[in-house]
Automatic annotation (TrEMBL):
InterPro entries: Glyas_Bleomycin-R_OHBP_Dase, VOC_core. Transmembrane segments: none annotated. It comes from the Bacteria. This is Glyoxalase. It comes from Bacillus cereus. The lineage of its organism: Bacteria, Bacillati, Bacillota, Bacilli, Bacillales.
Length: 137
């Protein structure tokens, strides 16, 4: 059976201040701003569209697993350990809240970072083979 769902088109991220958050994503992560009003902003980066949606206080994408550990819901990929170390250093220079680079017992290494509202994201050093093939990386 051929795949029917072809890709994730948009991810919705809760934010408390659309103006501040959209500026943060543009200035800190290099996102491209496509649209903004009082309730939402549409940005593109990492080959995807993200909607920053005005939400109530203390809402994030994060969740807690059955061990009580806070988890992220999105992992971004970079092409190799050098790229991971480089972006980690860049994020620190840009004063983005980041965790340490860590070995989680699987291929590659990771680190986490947070946006202004505490949305937790992961970065992994292993770029998908399908993505590499498609974009000739």
């Amino acid at each position: 059976m051929k795949e029917k769902l072809l890709r994730v088109g948009t991810t919705y991220i809760p934010v408390t201040n659309v103006e501040l958050s959209s500026n943060w994503y543009v200035n800190k992560l290099g996102a491209e701003l496509n649209f903004k009003d009082e309730d939402k902003a549409i940005i593109n980066f990492a080959n995807q569209s993200f909607f920053l949606v005005k939400s109530q206080d203390n809402q994030t994408l994060n969740f807690f697993d059955f061990h009580g550990e806070e988890r992220f819901s999105i992992t971004f990929e970079v092409n190799g350990l050098h790229a991971l170390e480089s972006i980690h250093s860049e994020f620190i220079e840009k004063e983005i809240l980041v965790g340490e680079i860590e070995n989680r017992g699987h291929a590659g290494k990771n680190f986490v970072f947070y946006d202004l509202d505490g949305n937790k994201f992961d970065v992994w050093s292993e770029l998908s083979p399908i993505f590499k093939e498609k974009y000739l990386i």
